[in-house]
Amino acid sequence: MFFLPMWWGRPAAAIVFGIGYLLGTRAGRDRYEQLRRTYRRAASNENVRKVIDQGKEIVDSGTAQIRDKAADQLKNAGKAIRDQVDP
User: Taking a C-beta distance cutoff of 8 angstroms, is the pair 34, 26 a contact?
Assistant: First the structure.
C-alpha cells in the first residue's frame, strides 16, 4: 500500500482545486461567449426587435394601469383613515 506524508494532502488538494477551477472557468467562458453571440444575432434580427418593442409597449401600458389603480387605492385608504380619526 502506498502512503503519502501528512503534509502532502493540502498542496495536492490545492493543485486539484486550481486545475478544476481553471477548466471550469474556461468552459464557463466558452458558454458565455456562445450565449452572447446568440443574443447579438437575435437582437440584430428585425422581427425579433419588433416583438421586443411590442412586448415593452404591453408592459408599459399594464404598468401604467396598475400604478393608477394603486394610487386610487392609496387615496381611498387615506380618506378612510382620516374618517376614522376625525368622526
Answer: no
Query: Which DSSP letter does residue 45 get?
Result: -
The size of the chain, in residues, is 87
Total of domains in the chain: 2
Residue with cell 415593452: 56
Residues 57 and 84 in one domain: yes
Separation of alpha carbons 10 and 26, rounded Å: 24
Residues 6+ apart with CB under 8 A from 4: 12
8 Å CB contact between 32 and 38: no
Q: For residue 68, which of 56, 76, 80 has the smallest C-alpha distance?
A: 76
Torsion angles phi and psi, residue 45, rounded to 5? -75, 130
pLDDT in tens, 27-80: 888 888 999 999 899 888 999 889 989 989 988 888 888 988 999 898 888 888
